[in-house]
Write a structure and sequence with these properties.
Layout: H1 10-30, E1 45-49, E2 60-62, E3 75-77, E4 81-83, E5 89-91, E6 95-97, H2 110-120, E7 122-132, E8 154-156, E9 165-168, E10 180-190, E11 194-203, E12 206-212, H3 219-222, E13 227-234, E14 237-245, E15 248-266, E16 281-307, E17 314-341, E18 345-367, E19 377-399, E20 404-418, E21 425-426, E22 428-429, E23 440-441, E24 446-460
Parallel strand pairs: 9-13, 13-22
Antiparallel strand pairs: 1-2, 3-6, 4-5, 7-10, 7-24, 8-9, 10-11, 11-15, 12-15, 13-14, 15-16, 16-17, 17-18, 18-19, 19-20, 20-24, 21-23
């Protein structure tokens, strides 16, 4: 029996061996690692972290790890050969470097990642304000020697010195009741340990007035009284002096305030109790910062008098009183932010107390106050005093989505030791001819209140 053997061609054997060899080299090349010196940089932990829970909470943020091809690139000698000095071929000595693909802003440099995280953890809140800052029930004038309330009608002397007329003093109780518009903006950045906030607010000039005309100055039978008076003391002593106005009388009052502050609100991880959804809860966060507050006000008083039944007659003339104040407060402050945080809404209350200084200026100008021959007088003061402040705000914020929140609230601001135009006037008349200045500026301070509704929205970068 004869056996037949199929022999494999040697050329096929050689080709199969080369394929196996090249496959093994390729696998080992694909599994090769970069040297330790060229290892991929480790991911950096971010300095930013969203503060206590709120709508649009992002959690901890870190730089995105770079892909494998972003590791230190391979370097190899250039394949370009240039002739040497003697004409022979020689390596140029240049090094070729493979650059990674440009991945755009926020990846190729640590500062890019810093600004990217800065933007992602920033937020802006803009609010409309409807606020009031009334001067209170201040008298435009001094006190009666009897101690009675000069706002109520009292007997007044006629041209012959007889108490046949009635008069009263005006006050500022009706000033500042309507309120004025304002705006408040807050910019914040959430860090891992707290939130840095910068706040600015400003109001329009609140202009209001009170006036008396002929309809009110017709006597107690047909009007209110016969006259409006500005009672003054005489040479510093309580007396019935000053000026009467029987034609018209008006007070125009203007008030405006603006300020800026910066606060740092510390993070607290403790929640006193959680919501039924397991997210958020009640928390208390301390804060501290600095406030600058400017308060500017002025008061313009004008009254007319005429008496044609006496001898000699008194032709019509108008008296003018203008007083103005300017307060600049520099106040370090501290407070606490109390919040109940829910995935759908946040309710907060925030009291802040400050102790600082107030640099204030005030001036009083009178023209024809005593009579038509009384010239213009101007006096001014400029001083610095200790001034405490207190602010309390309550807010309800509704998280409409992860990047927008609707806000409604009420804010109350109080400052003490404030110069106001109704209180810096010293209502006094002088009987001497050498010092005939009346109604001088005095160092008399009062409190200031600014309160009202706030309404707006907050934007967080998604």
């Amino acid at each position: 029996m004869r056996l037949k053997y199929n022999m494999v061609n040697p050329a096929y054997r050689l080709m199969i061996g080369m394929i196996v060899l090249l496959s093994g080299v390729g696998v080992r090349s694909a599994q090769a690692q970069y040297a330790p010196a060229m290892a991929q940089p480790a991911a950096q932990e971010s300095l930013y972290q969203a503060t206590a829970y709120h709508g649009g909470h992002k959690g901890n943020l870190v730089y995105e790890p770079a892909p494998d091809y972003y590791a230190s690139p391979d370097q190899y000698a250039s394949e370009y050969y240039a002739p040497d000095y003697y004409g022979g071929a020689a390596n140029s000595g240049s090094i070729m470097q493979v650059l990674p693909e440009d991945r755009g802003w926020g990846y190729d440099h640590p500062w890019d990642g810093f600004f990217k995280n800065l933007a992602e953890n920033s937020w802006l809140r803009v609010e409309y304000m409807l606020v009031k800052s009334p001067p209170g029930n201040q008298l435009v004038g001094g006190q009666l020697p009897s101690g009675n309330d000069p706002r109520l009608p009292f007997p007044a002397a006629d041209a012959n010195g007889l108490l046949t007329l009635s008069s009263k003093e005006a006050d500022l109780s009706s000033i500042g009741k309507k309120g004025t518009n304002g705006i408040r903006g807050t910019f914040g950045i959430d860090f891992e340990r707290g939130t840095l906030e910068a706040i600015f607010f400003g109001t329009q000039s609140d202009v209001s007035s009170v006036s008396y005309g002929q309809a009110e100055l017709m006597g107690p039978t047909f009007g209110q009284t016969d006259m409006i008076s500005i009672i003054t003391s005489l040479d510093g002593q309580t007396a019935i002096a000053g000026r009467n106005f029987n034609e018209k009388f008006s007070v125009l009052y203007r008030s405006q305030a603006w300020g800026a502050e910066s606060n740092y609100v510390l993070n607290t991880d403790q929640l006193f109790f959680k919501t039924i959804y397991g997210a958020g809860g009640f928390q208390m966060r301390p804060l501290f910062g600095f406030r600058y507050l400017k308060i500017a006000e002025d008061m313009d008083v004008r009254g007319s008098f005429e008496e044609l039944t006496t001898t000699p007659t008194v032709p019509l003339f108008e008296s003018t009183i203008q007083s103005a104040t300017n307060n600049k407060l520099y106040v370090p402050q501290a407070g606490i932010r109390m919040e109940f945080v829910h995935p759908w809404f946040t309710i907060s209350a925030e009291p802040k107390v400050g102790f600082g200084v107030n640099h204030y200026k005030g001036s009083v100008m009178t023209d024809q106050f005593l009579d038509s021959t009384d010239p213009t007088h101007y006096t001014a003061i400029s001083k610095t005093s200790f001034s405490p402040t207190f602010e309390f705000g309550v807010n309800a914020r509704f998280h409409l989505n992860e990047w927008f929140t609707f806000n409604v609230g009420y804010n109350f601001l109080w400052a003490n030791q404030i110069a106001r135009p109704g209180t810096i006037v010293y209502y006094n008349s002088s009987s001497t001819t050498t010092n005939g200045v009346s109604l001088q500026a005095q160092n008399s301070l009062d409190s200031y209140k600014l309160h009202g509704l706030v309404l707006g929205g907050e934007i967080r970068w998604p």
